[in-house]
Amino acid sequence: MRADREQVLRLLKTARGQIDGIMRMVDSDRYCIDISTQLMATASLLNRINADVLKAHIEGCVQDAATLGTPEERHEKLLEIEGVIDKLTR
Amino acid sequence: MRADREQVLRLLKTARGQIDGIMRMVDSDRYCIDISTQLMATASLLNRINADVLKAHIEGCVQDAATLGTPEERHEKLLEIEGVIDKLTR
Amino acid sequence: MRADREQVLRLLKTARGQIDGIMRMVDSDRYCIDISTQLMATASLLNRINADVLKAHIEGCVQDAATLGTPEERHEKLLEIEGVIDKLTR
Amino acid sequence: MRADREQVLRLLKTARGQIDGIMRMVDSDRYCIDISTQLMATASLLNRINADVLKAHIEGCVQDAATLGTPEERHEKLLEIEGVIDKLTR
């Protein structure tokens, strides 16, 4: 992975902490709307981490393949990005 | 919370396990596209849990307020649902 | 429909104008990234109109059913809202 | 634009027809939930067109820049894709 690994791990740790918090909210019978708000915040954080990972991937691996790779490698990398865009637009 | 608490906790545990798995993927330098795929899957799972929590809330608290609550309580519950829809459509 | 009809029609007219603009961009071979940006802006506008329609529906029909309807009518309205939330969280 | 222009224009025409249909639904005071369903369908169609445009862009312009462009051109194309991913993950 080419993204700043420490930064990604830190954000993943935050997301895990948020899920732990949501489990405690469920356990202590907290109000559904507050639980829902926290679930949306954690999903947003995961989307942001995903954007960071993908941008670092494009700056790193895709850029390298475009510069140094064979035409097949370049094409494969671009097909992968198309696959990501397909999932993100669904 | 009115959703089936055991079911919600079980799904949250799955989401936390997925995040642990993603952290191991980052640690062992796995391919970005695979990490991205897992991040999207976990965000989808959180969205599904959110839908479950909200549906149980509507069947439970909102239904009760509509049946037994004062006009103010009913209105407050409906305003909360509007707030959720606002966030979900953004 | 309970939303401010003039306001909803005005926004829909804006969305249609944006689609006409995108068709002209395609016809005159404009740059893909600019076309993509416009497509996302128009989808966002439709999501905003959807939020407006749903909020007015909740303030209007659902509120009325909660106040005046039979238990069956109330329940049906709430089930419809659950269906909307299901689609929005997908 | 590198996407199949006729196909994109046909889908845009469909989206415009759907918006015209929604305007008629609003005019004839159709039920909000049905209007909401149509708004979501049209937003989904625009997202699908966006995916088609972006994939054709990557297969075309980005692929060409990766093969024939200067390092600066390649980098610029990749930065644009990062910008798109940023918007799509929001």
TrEMBL record, chains A, B, C, D:
Lineage, broadest ranks: Bacteria, Bacillati, Actinomycetota, Coriobacteriia, Coriobacteriales
Keyword Nucleotide-binding recorded: no
Keywords, ordered alphabetically: Copper
Record's protein name: Metal-sensing transcriptional repressor
InterPro entries listed in its UniProt record: Metal_Tscrpt_repr, Metal_Tscrpt_repr_sf
Tree of life domain: Bacteria
UniProt family annotation: Belongs to the CsoR family.
Keyword Oxidoreductase assigned: no
Listed Pfam families: Trns_repr_metal
